[in-house]
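Instructor's aside before we start: the two examples that follow are unrelated to each other. I chose them only because their records fit on one page, so don't look for a connection. First example below.
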Amino acid sequence: MENITKVRLTRLFVLAFSISMFSGCSWFISRSRDDAAKDAAKDVAADVKADVKSDSAETIVENRPIKISSVEEFRNHIEGSENVVVDFKAEWCGPCKRMKKVNVALTKKYPTVKILEVDIDKFKPLADQYGVKGVPTFEFFKDGERLERIRKVGFMREDEAGKKFKEAFGV
């Protein structure tokens, strides 16, 4: 009797999940995404605490990718830095989440390269401007100019990223 109840409950859950997927109700998905995003934010916050230094009124984070919070900030980093890699990403993207650790390792290995993380859901005009069709997408900038010959769509291992950095910046 107990096994029959488990089977019925499992079928009911699968049916409810299927209906929610096809009817546009995303409660199941959004709930798990929200939880994952909160957990990831806590992990990143714990990691960053160790590398944060106070300098007058602003906070400087060393050897970390820079999470863009405005279009103006994006433009300032592009125009004011010699070597920049922009990681266009999304919070819901699995490969983008995996890139976080790779980006941290890359900023430590290549301190002359600035890595900017741009959330395409928050900054759709920037994603459109650079023709982002899939995430993660990496754009390379040298002295404020976009290197159109060098672009990568999809997850990049650290060694693969190192080759791209060498091709773009000679580091």
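Example two begins here.
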Amino acid sequence: MRQHQFLYCMLIFILIICVFSCEKKPIERVIPDTPTIIDPPIARAGQDREIRLPQDSVWLDAGSSFALQGHSIYEWKKKSGPLSFKIIQVDSTKIIVDSLTEGVYVFGLKVIDLKLRESDDSIKVTVLPPESPDSNVCASRPVSIISGTANLEIIGTLRRVGFMELD
């Protein structure tokens, strides 16, 4: 009889432990500045870029994008801009955009996680014309000097001309 009472007590004790342990909710850990596991991916295409011809290529890096649902797919596409361009895939997050011409391009980044959730971002690439070879030099103009010498001095974009009279 004592054995049966002991077994009943043990059975009730085990049931109580199971009931209380099953009612506990899972603990969610929140790390600042990062999404929880249920969040969709976050696409970050980077800061807008500006280049000057003759440089006609630029690196774009989505390395600060992330998704916590395992591996992600990164897709780069041109959204707008001049017709001339070529995308070269370096790795899953990095590309080189080559053969750019003067103008403003907008490239879109799409990050897709394993649950097919998406996030988009874009980056603007401005391609400036080449600097003029005359930008820091005075334009060539005929100068007539009757008697004396001329001295031309260029300081940045400020131009100074000095004359000295000969005896």
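The chain is about 15% helix and 35% strand.
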